[in-house]
Amino acid sequence: MAIRTISKIELSKIHNRYNLTVDFFNDLNVIHGKNGAGKSTLIHVIANIVNGDFIRFAFLIFEEIKATYSDGLKIVIRRDKIDEQSFISVTLSNGKYIKFAVGEAMATVREIESERHLRERDVKSMLAMDIDKFVKENELQKVRASYFPAFRTMLEAWSSSSDVGYERRVIRSSFYNRKASAFARELFGQFLPSINYPSPMEIEDRLREEIRRAQLGIAAYESRTFSESFVKVFSALFDNSSVEGEITGELLKEIEGLAIAQDSSIKNGYYAEYSKVYEEIRSLINRNLKGKVENSVSGALVVYRDALRDRQDYQEKAFSEIDNYMSSVNSFLEDKEMAYDFDLRRKYPKVGLKFPDGSWSPIRVLSSGERQLLTMLYAASKMGDDAIVLIDEPEISLHIDWQEDLLKRMLSQLSGRQIIVCTHSPSIATGYEDFMINISPEFISSRDNDNHKDSEEMEEDESL
Q1: Is the backbone of residue 51 left (phi > 0), alpha (psi -120 to 50) or beta?
Q2: How many CB atoms lie within 10 A of CB 399?
Q3: Domain residues for 377?
Q4: Do 40 and 11 meet the contact criterion of CB atoms below 8 Å apart?
Q5: pLDDT at 279
Q6: Does residue 229 lie in a domain region?
Q7: Is position 273 within any domain?
Q8: How many CB atoms lie within 10 A of CB 119?
Q9: Same domain membership, residue 166 and residue 247
Q10: DSSP letters along 248-307, please?
Q11: What is the end-to-end Cα distance of the chain in Å, rounded?
Q12: What residue stretches are annotated with the Rad50/SbcC-type AAA domain (predicted)?
């Protein structure tokens, strides 16, 4: 089934200043335009819609926003004034809708971003629960968005403080992300989407989990294949029919090559029990198959050869996403590489940076630019949970050569995900000029609007 992506966004009277319509590609989108063209606001609108954070629209001055998805779903968000009170309504193409007062939404946000609510995840207001229910009942979060703000380096500096750093290491990441979002909104306004991109430490932990799952999958496969091969070997021995198209010499040579290649793999070394069995079979073949091979034995060799082939294919597929991701990251690194290794004494593998002298360091010692590459490439990979990746100014902290390679590496990890980047750097789109989208808003005259500001609008403008 195709992944749901954003096809079109239509913005009407944003800040009572401009209208903007943007059509998107299903995979890569490079948004560029002059300063003040609304690039960051566009990213924020998409993130809040995709993540179902409709309460945030109480903090944006607008008339109407329409979002169209690739599967035909349409969401229309309006801001209307009734009896001097402003309301936000969210209406879906299936006719379902939710409506709430701007004043209630503001009070709710102040409450849910208090320290108590930040720590107690399950404590929510009635409005927040109503919006969550609306989102779940209408399956509006079939996809989620990872949002990378332009002020990522500032967040890194904030998170490196002793208290926040301790919380990020010890307390669950969801609490850290909520606290980071609250901190950023104090500076950049309440319409800012949730900060939800993974930290290098989270990626390190997730990679351990991914590798562990691959290990368990291989172990189950080894057990199942060994049992099936045992039955097939006896069947071949009793069948005694010739093996059509199989030449014994070439068969033995292929078996030898497959066995040697798999013996050198660190992934196989973790499963010593099964590797030992395969090695004993190989030794038995070398000792006893001198000269003509009986048909029955030839058939058994084919079973063994096929088992080795299937084993190699399964292992490559099990680790392919992990290896592809690390390969992309390593293409940017010098004098070190991101790697993993198995330790039979530990439940989880070692994941970190490996240096030419054989020493290891945790991922967090990477430079600012390297950490950003690590997180953006992870968000674009199949291992990431989010299908839409939103990046504001990806060029920040990146060398010009890295800027030119970034999209190529992200696209190699994409696997159906949609990437939307906003940039001022032409180097980012090198080789991908066909995916560039120049946005030019239609500015409207304030004289065309009944624009006197009430107390709610003044508060929102201050937040923005």
Answers
A1: alpha
A2: 12
A3: 198-385
A4: no
A5: 63
A6: yes
A7: yes
A8: 12
A9: no
A10: HHHHHHHHHHHHHHHHT-HHHHT-HHHHHHHHHHHHHHHHH--S---HHHHHHHHHHHHH
A11: 39
A12: 13-126
Q: How far is CA 207 from the centre of its chain?
A: 12
Same domain, 315 and 376: yes
183, with CB counted inside 10 A (0-12, 13-18, 19+), is middle
Contact 70, 26 (CB under 8 A): yes
207 and 349, same domain (yes or no): yes
Q: Determine the Cα–Cα distance for residues 239 and 300; give it in Å rounded to an integer.
A: 10
- Which one-letter DSSP state was computed for residue 113? T
Contacts of 158 (CB under 8 A, 6+ apart): 164, 180, 183
Do 142 and 167 belong to one domain? yes
351 and 411 part of one domain: no
> Tens of pLDDT along the chain (464 residues)?
568 899 999 999 999 999 999 999 998 999 998 888 899 999 999 999 999 999 999 999 999 999 999 999 999 999 999 988 999 999 999 999 999 999 999 999 988 877 555 555 555 689 999 999 999 999 998 888 889 898 887 887 777 664 555 445 445 566 677 888 888 898 899 999 998 887 788 888 889 999 998 888 888 887 787 777 777 776 766 666 555 555 566 776 777 676 665 554 545 555 555 556 556 666 666 665 554 455 556 777 778 788 878 888 888 888 888 998 999 999 999 999 999 998 777 788 899 999 999 999 998 889 888 988 898 888 887 655 567 989 998 888 788 888 888 888 888 776 678 999 998 887 888 888 899 999 999 998 754 555 444 545 544 543 33
Residue 130: the pLDDT is: 95
Amino acid (one-letter) located at 403 = Q
**d(Cα 379, Cα 198) in Å, to the nearest integer?**
8
Domain end call among 332, 350, 385: 385
Separation CA 53–CA 60 (nearest Å): 13
Q: Are residues 268 and 297 in the same domain?
A: yes
Residue 74 is encoded by which pair of tokens?
């349409």
Residue the block writes with tokens 């973790």 = 270
The reply to whether 93 and 175 lie within a common domain is yes
Boundary (domain end) residue, out of 334, 352, 385: 385
Whether residue 1 lies inside any domain: the answer is no
| Assigned token pair, 436 | 């560039």
Phi–psi pair at 368, nearest 5 degrees = -60, -45
**What is the number of structural domains in the chain?**
2
* Amino acid (1-letter code) at residue 153: T
In a domain, 411, yes or no: yes
Type and span of the H or E element at 365: none
